[in-house]
């Protein structure tokens, strides 16, 4: 995977369930350079300490987070955070319940 630089800017996309192949086809058709990384998307409450609580779960298991980004649509809405951990399988097992 390329890194952000003077020559390349990264845009991270999270296709909706069932649309990954459609996104891949579009990127190929338009001749975009792209890579795919497995991630974990988690909805959390929009309140202080929630991101720290989730990140702490990764830390307790010794899982490094390569990157994380998040978004929220309003003060009363849940936040969506996307994590890219080094060990996707172990990380996924933490959140299965």
The H-and-E topology, N to C, reads as: HEHEEH
CATH superfamily of the largest domain: VC0802-like
Query: Strand content of the residues, in percent?
Result: 15-25%
What structural class do helix, strand and pairing data support?
Answer: alpha+beta
How many DSSP E strands?
Answer: 3
User: What's the gyration radius in Å?
Assistant: 15 Å
- Which segments are poorly predicted (pLDDT under 50) over 5 or more consecutive residues? none
Question: What composes the largest sheet?
Answer: 3 strands, antiparallel
What is the top-level CATH class of the largest domain? Answer: Alpha Beta
Order of strands, main sheet, comes to 1-3-2
Report the end-to-end length measured between terminal Cα atoms: 32 Å
Helix content: 25-40%
- Supply the number of helical segments: 3
Task: Describe the protein.
- By secondary structure, the chain is α+β, with helices and mostly antiparallel strands.
- It has two domains: 36 residues, no CATH class; 58 residues, VC0802-like (2-Layer Sandwich), CATH 3.30.2130.10.
- 30% of the residues lie in helices and 21% in strands.
- The chain contains three helices and three strands, in the order H-E-H-E-E-H.
- A three-stranded antiparallel β-sheet has the order 1-3-2.
- Strand 2 and strand 3 form a beta hairpin.
- The longest helix has 11 residues.
